[in-house]
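[agent] plan:
  1. take the single chain provided in the ticket
  2. run structure prediction with default settings
  3. attach structure tokens to the ticket
  4. add a short note for the reviewer (M.T.)
[agent] executing step 1
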Amino acid sequence: MKQPIRLCRRVIMFAAIASFVVMSAGSSRAFAQMTYKAGDRIEGKVSGEWVKAEVRKVEANGSLFIRYDGSSVDVLTFPDFVRPAQAATPIDNRKGSNPAQNQPTPDQPAPNAPKGNQPAPQPNQAANANANKYGTRDARTCKEMKAPVNGAVTAALAQTYVVCDREKISGPYLHLVENVKAEVAAGRPYNPNLDINFPEIDVRFPVYPIRGSLTSYQCYAVNPNFTVSLPGKNCIRYEEPQSKGFCYKTTFGDWRCHMADLSYTNENFFPGVAPPKPEF
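[agent] step 2 finished; step 3 output follows
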């Protein structure tokens, strides 16, 4: 009777092992087949932390274009760096994660300051405390944006105001621009259908279409532990050769100029590049 009992035990053990292997294989396949589609709420890994985002586009090779909450730019990432949205509040809502809460450091000279009486972009004091962690210069802001008080905005001023509009810290990223060129068209009257999304617009003044080109950078904080934030490779560069936008006056008498190239073609997209060189 002992031999049949041993045989029975072996059969039971083999069946249990086989069942475990099948379950494991099924689980692995399910994980490998996890897919996303445009509009899915997810979280992306940024410098070791998970940040809420939305899937914007899925490429044939499985890579994803996603947009982090609080950002206005789509970024390319890979399935290894995303997960379905979790119920817990992500780090971008934690106390102290807002760069504006950091202490400012002294001013630094603004690069490429326009000549004459034109206001030059100034270092963003809220960004100074964080600039070094991106391995680049500070974002620039404009202390004065009221020129010209009367008449059309000049091309030189439009370029300055575009810099001050585009450069900022937004969510986990530092956004910078270089090589900004712009030309200004004749003004047109305010159009409530076209201009409804212009914040604080003064409808009594003309709106000026602008066009040109620029190079934009979206940079992660440097972290040698993650591929997307390696030192000297922590930025995505976008060439924007067909940028378009508008300049207009606000009810406070300030000018606002925004310009961007929304084509997002692959030949103008360069991940894993160095940020602009810091200024000393």
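[agent] step 4 note for reviewer: The longest strand covers residues 235-249.
[agent] ticket updated
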